[in-house]
Amino acid sequence: MNLRATLRLALQALIRNKARSLLTMLGIVIGVAAVIVTVAIGTGARVQVQNSINALGSNLIVVQPGSVTTSGARGGLGTASTLTPADGMAIASLPGVASVSPMVTLRTQVVAGENNWQTTISGAAPTYTYIRSWPIATGRLFSQSDVDSTAKVAVLGQTVVGQLFGNANPIGATIVIKGAPFVVIGTLAPLGQSGTGQDQDDTVLIPYTSAMERLTGLTTVNQLMISAASADKIDAVQSEVTQLLESRHRIVAPQPDDFQVRNLQSIAQAASATGTVMELLLAGVAAVSLIVGGIGIMNIMMVSVTERTREIGLRMSVGARGKTILRQFLAEAVVLSTAGGLIGVVGGAIFTIVVAAVAKWPTDIPIGSVVLSVAFSALVGIFFGYYPAKKASELHPIEALRFE
Prior knowledge:
Elements: H1 3-16, H2 18-56, E1 60-65, E2 69-70, E3 73-74, H3 85-92, E4 97-112, E5 115-124, H4 128-131, E6 136-139, H5 144-148, E7 153-156, H6 158-165, E8 174-177, E9 180-188, E10 203-207, H7 208-216, E11 223-228, H8 234-248, E12 259-263, H9 264-307, H10 309-317, H11 322-359, H12 367-393, H13 397-402
Parallel strand pairs: 5-10, 7-9
Antiparallel strand pairs: 1-11, 1-12, 2-3, 4-5, 4-8, 4-11, 6-9, 7-10, 8-9
Helix pairs in contact: 1-11, 2-9, 2-11, 2-12, 9-11, 9-12, 11-12
């Protein structure tokens, strides 16, 4: 008996008991659907984390003030205000560094005419938009001469534009920040929310020297943003920055650093690794569902062998060999599990689309996971269907015909 005839007989046998066949496939359907949904959501989450990190800047390294200990009391991150613009200029001369921007940030009220809005003021260098890969939408960015002269100029994020000016063109308008008037010279392209849900467009960029002299009165900065020349130089640049700042701040072992150098790629890798662990954990649960479905197939096939004992005996008495009987029952198990796998793929894809639409969660279904899921479901059918098929093929024709 050829393969086509074997599959035809298997389908006929399964169609005779439609309800039982569908219920038997249910475990496989649920298992494969769970695998598809888990992989899709996990892959989408990893992509979102990576995109969020990439959106923060190109090959970004961030230097932040560290902590200090006063009279035995340890302060938190940022209490050691020792970073200066001069530190940034020194870092910019290191090999492998593409650009550096000192950052001074504060949150305050901004007034434009009769409108006002509380937002984040970010004092930065002209290199900031390059580091963040953040294009200018209209107007221009402030220049190095604006930084040198502590010019009162500002570039607005789209959220601030909407709150202060609505649909009007803000270029050339004046906004007041902590009593100081700033002229709007440009607007930033919209970025949307960050991975943590923060509105990145709710910001006002001004020269960092203007923020230090006119708004905070401080001589230190909140952080230094550094862009490495390429991704493969990030670790080397991070090490060189640490050594340079230790030298400039006269820090020797075992004295702790008064700053922290963070590589956002390592954060991305840690977040991605965490997501992978969770994905594997959920996939393991889905695999258990597949195994349970396989046990269900074995159970039903054993029942089927018992019910069809006389049929098996009749076929063997007219010349059917044991291997033919084995192939037929094995084909039924494989058809059951493979059909369940295909239905599970469709169901998982539909559920994934629903999750993406309702929860606004990014999803991605790798084609490899689809192929692997269907192949694994077929293997489940072979593994759990072999024993009942083997038992059917070993029946003695005379005893089978006598079976009631």
